[in-house]
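Recall the central idea of this unit: under ordinary conditions, the amino acid sequence of a chain determines the structure it adopts. In this exercise we apply that idea directly, starting from the sequence alone.
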Amino acid sequence: MKLLVAVKRVIDYNVKPRVKMDGSGVDLANVKMSMNPFDEIAVEEAIRLKEKGTASEIVVVSIGPAKAQETLRTALAMGADRAILIQTEDEVAAMVEPLGVAKLLAKVVEEENPDMVILGKQAIDDDSNATGQMLAALLGWPQGTFASKVEPGDGSVNVTREIDGGLETVKLTLPAVVTTDLRLNDPRYASLPNIMKAKSKPLETKTPADYGIDTTRRLEITNVAEPPKREAGEKVGSVDELVAKLKDLGVA
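Accordingly, the structure predicted from this sequence is:
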């Protein structure tokens, strides 16, 4: 089984984003970047499938600026076999919309012909939660989203997914698209020897033009602002006082 894993370079989840003074977007200057946490889980799951002997090759792909090579090298150090970077212009690197990403990934799928595409359920920078679903629709493949367990079988894969009512298991005929949730696994840390080995693993660079895909944005961001600061609460001395306060506020 050949696996294709999509990863994205985003602001590190430990960093608090700063909004630009003009409100045009998030300030990325001198900010630590890393692999999207959900995509890291996707890479880990692909590696585990290879360690079990289920998968034979893992190809990771990313869409972004030249610096996204660092993200791909991280995936290679974790255990992926080779990587593809679809390089965009720096100023629009973080601006490729989910539909554009899905179209580019569909072209990569046509070239690589994987048995399964694994990607995070969403990116933590825009929280769109749309790329995996759009990719499945473009390919006409079955999809298993929010996966908390992945069990490949003979020509199929069982995906246990989290829904509002609990857990649901769907059986997908391969090839298929799977998006990962937080409870699927705990990603490993890349060891120093593997980091060194990753430097010599193949990393191919292409552009959206090579695939004939227009990544021009169709949506315009009019303003970006930080959420309002939460006001301090009030302490009450008894339940009766609490009830009275809630009635005064009109919520009880």
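The first strand starts at residue 2 and ends at 7.
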